[in-house]
Design brief:
By secondary structure, the protein is mainly α. Helix content is 46%, strand content 0%. It has one domain. Bound molecules: heme C (HEC) (4 copies). One heme C (HEC) binds next to helix 3, helix 6 and helix 11.
Length: 164
């Protein structure tokens, strides 16, 4: 059954300001459709951010605000997909994801340098000041995704000559 009514309701909820409160589905929910991104993320420190804290520090809201910002509200540890991309409750259905505009309308976020800097600020224990371009390279989980999509697009177009 296509739950058309329910997504319209969702849209209404989002537009009426519930976007902030979109429920997190957890990183496992993205894994099936974005296996390469998921794999790359598991290799990053973000995927283990809460593990850097001692048991006492895991109770400390100050530490959690950057090492597990959705711990107290939603019980999700670490810095996950949805910490950066927004809660997936409304955008992660296949037919929404395929529509870049709709996905953004219902909560998908494009993480900006400013968003990184809410955590990577002067108070974080970094030896060097935060360099956005360098840091992006270090968390690359999109190049493989984009290469695959490009390959798919090429496979879908009848190619006159074989390209290597
Ligand atoms: C049912 C499959 C599915 C699920 C589940 C899913 N996605 Fe997607 N996602 C897609 C598809 C399909 C696209 C369109 C791009 C493509 O074809 O690769 C996409 C695109 C994206 C994009 C790029 C959007 C753009 O326009 O630049 C981001 C970011 C993204 N997804 C994040 C997530 C996150 C985070 C989750 C988990 C909360 C998630 N997705 C769950 C299928 C899915
Ligand atoms: C403003 C955000 C922020 C707050 C608040 C914060 N951290 Fe961090 N923390 C970071 C960032 C960002 C890094 C990674 C720095 C880097 O390597 O560039 C980090 C790194 C660490 C590391 C090093 C992990 C490693 O792999 O070497 C430890 C340990 C740590 N934090 C503990 C804490 C504790 C304990 C608290 C609470 C008292 C805390 N942090 C509060 C942002 C924060
Ligand atoms: C620390 C923040 C952060 C986390 C955590 C994160 N992402 Fe991303 N993601 C980004 C940024 C930033 C970009 C865009 C990079 C660019 O455009 O250069 C991006 C891009 C993407 C894309 C776009 C690829 C395309 O089609 O162009 C997908 C899909 C995606 N992320 C999925 C995920 C999934 C799934 C997870 C968790 C397993 C995740 N991300 C975790 C910040 C994050
Ligand atoms: C919610 C807070 C938060 C946000 C937002 C965030 N980070 Fe992080 N980041 C952390 C924490 C915490 C760590 C340290 C994890 C640990 O080791 O415990 C970290 C670690 C890193 C590291 C690893 C540093 C090292 O020494 O290897 C890189 C690179 C990084 N972040 C890049 C980014 C980029 C790029 C963005 C924005 C697209 C971003 N982060 C957004 C909290 C955040």
């Amino acid at each position: 059954m296509r739950a058309r009514g329910s997504w319209i309701l969702s849209l209404v909820l989002v537009l009426s300001g519930a976007a902030e409160a979109a429920d997190l589905l957890g990183p496992e929910s993205c894994k099936g459709c974005h296996p390469a991104a998921y794999e790359a993320w598991t290799q990053s420190k973000h995927a283990r951010a809460t593990d850097s804290l001692s048991e006492a520090q895991k109770q400390d809201a100050r530490c959690l605000s950057c090492h597990a910002p959705q711990q107290s509200s939603q019980g999700v540890s670490h810095v996950t997909c949805e910490t950066c991309h927004g809660g997936g409750q409304y955008y992660s259905a296949a037919y929404v994801m395929k529509d870049a505009e709709l996905a953004r309308l219902v909560g998908l976020q494009d993480p900006s340098e400013k968003a990184c800097r809410t955590c990577h600020d002067a108070s974080s224990p970094s030896l060097k000041p935060f360099d956005f371009a360098e840091s992006l390279k270090a968390i690359d989980h999109w190049s493989v995704e984009r290469a695959k999509r490009a390959a798919r697009a090429e496979a879908d177009t009848p190619a006159p000559a074989k390209k290597k």
